[in-house]
Amino acid sequence: MTSLFLSGPAGRLEAEIKRSPGATTAAVVCHPHPQYGGTLYNKIVYRAARAIHGAGITTLRFNFRGVEASEGHFDGGRGEVDDARAALDFLGEEHDRLIVAGYSFGSWVGLRAGIADPRVKALIGIGLPIDVFDFSFLRDARVPLLIVHGDKDGWGESDKVRALAGELSSPVALEIIPGADHFFEAHHLETMMGKISDFLAREAEQLLVD
Fold first, then answer.
1. Is 78 exposed, middle or buried (0-12, 13-18, 19+ CB in 10 A)?
2. How distant, in Å, are the alpha carbons of 12, 29, 77, 79 from that of 109?
3. Residue 65's CB: how many other CB atoms inside 10 A?
4. What are 136-157's pLDDT values in tens digits?
């Protein structure tokens, strides 16, 4: 694991990268809401990055503007999308294929950045706060999408997530975890990681093969 600073649109962005030797694919993993304590060290973000790295993919976690050592100020999700784009640009200098993963607020922000980037070959949304934010932009997705969601999530009714997934034209893997809340407490974290690993194994040919 290497700590570094990225050049962001509002100043430097604090980040940590875990490289996978020889990897042609890299993933940005976006953290939850900054105003509710979200940072790159969030346990779900960390575990998601670990699962992705386990598939032979370089992973980058970073702090949005105004979080801890990142410069700038919270921008309600607008500037944070630009922060995610800056992280993708950083990874794109060394990697041919990119993935965007995000948890909670990070899914709303990160997937918006990833959906418009032709370098991004897969999207992973964890704990979509669909009761709070509009995720209709996912209708424009054209790459494989994994949604991991708890059926007890207090920020996103699972029926709404199912309905959205049914409207998408992109290949969607919807994994509703029974008994899991928004924070994937206890053993649900391991289940979440397993869903990510399984998805990446299914998509390995597109994501990992030269």
1. exposed
2. 18, 11, 6, 9
3. 23
4. 999 999 999 999 999 999 999 9
Q: Which residues pair with 69 in a beta bridge?
A: none
Who's near 169: CB < 8 A, 6+ residues apart?
139, 141, 142
- Model confidence over 84-116: pLDDT tens digits? 999 999 999 999 999 999 999 999 999 999 999
Nearest to 194 by CA among 170, 172, 177, 181: 177
Single-letter amino acid, residue 191: T
| Other C-beta atoms lying within 10 Å of the C-beta of residue 168 | 16
How many CB atoms neighbour CB 132 within 10 A?
13
Tell me the residue length of the chain. 210
Flag whether the pTM goes above 0.90: yes
CB 168 within 8 A of CB 143: no
Give the burial string for 92-127 (b: 16+ CB within 10 Å, else e).
beebebbbbbbbbbbbbbbbbbbbebebbbbbbbbb
CB atoms near residue 49 (< 10 Å): 25
Q: CB neighbours (10 Å) of residue 191?
A: 17
Which domains are seen in the chain, by residue range?
2-208 (3.40.50.1820)
User: Is the per-residue pLDDT at 204 higher than 90?
Assistant: no
Strands (E), the chain: 2-8, 11-18, 25-30, 58-62, 97-103, 120-126, 145-150, 172-177
